Amino acid sequence: MGKKRGNIHLYTGEGEGKTITAFGLALRALGHGHKVIIIQFMKGRRDIGEYKVKRRLSPEYEIHQFGRKEFIDLKNPEPLDFELAKKGLEFAKKALKKKPDLLILDEINLAAAFKLIKLEEVLELLNNVPENTTVVLTGRRAPKELIERADLVTEMKEIKHPMKKGVLARRGIEY
Amino acid sequence: MGKKRGNIHLYTGEGEGKTITAFGLALRALGHGHKVIIIQFMKGRRDIGEYKVKRRLSPEYEIHQFGRKEFIDLKNPEPLDFELAKKGLEFAKKALKKKPDLLILDEINLAAAFKLIKLEEVLELLNNVPENTTVVLTGRRAPKELIERADLVTEMKEIKHPMKKGVLARRGIEY
Fold first, then answer.
1. Average pLDDT by consecutive 10-residue portion of chain A (175 residues)?
2. Domains observed in chain B
């Protein structure tokens, strides 16, 4: 059903622009008065532009974080990391019931790749996408099952990045 | 000067997500209360989400179009197309004087590739970017001189696209 409308997008790759592309789709959707729900996995910082902008865009723009403020150690995740990711996925299931026009599952690819959440549960969620909802999955290392399942897949390929040259993360650009 | 801060971003490639990434950066910047000016080359449709959203985000979010409503025939552009693109570039020069935090030059890569605007003029504009302004250049077929000049370059590589399977452009997603 979702399959026919092409409504599962996936952005992956090592290049910059995966998360930010999803937020661009959010902005576009808001322009049409659509409802957008964003769920961020493994992220918990609220001083980021995409979180702070909700003050201006509520109630059509909802953003919910399921991660710690600190960076997660993906090679050695803590029980809390699993717990938060699991809560994020449960929240996503409930969010779909509200039939938003756009549901963004930010960093879910990486969360699935590192088994913070079960791939089968993500696939099951994708089988329950309402007809008029577009779901966007972002994150590096997208498992091949998600790539197969998605209708639109773009790989962000890094050609040049200034942070590799020692430029610090800039407010309003990298976060 | 701009070079040191890494403040020229370029998004190119045949994959989806170039323009929309720029709008994601706009959303992020707005969250921090930053000022964003967007100039669209070769685009003139105002029923697109990224145009309509300005009602909600003015005055920090400005968007100006320098194109016709119809698709441009890049192989055979009309005098009006050249005129509009030239006006867009002039407008961009003036916009920089306002020192916005973010200036998006949407589709400028393609406009330069098809010589609607002079590459030298674009390079000159990039030499006059204020210290605290980030400029984003989007569009397919970015001339190599622009790639060399940019600090951050991402290529969007298409892996799968539903419109190739006959799915029509969807409001709030493709426009």
1. 68 89 96 97 96 96 96 93 98 97 98 98 97 96 97 89 77 87
2. 2-165 (3.40.50.300)
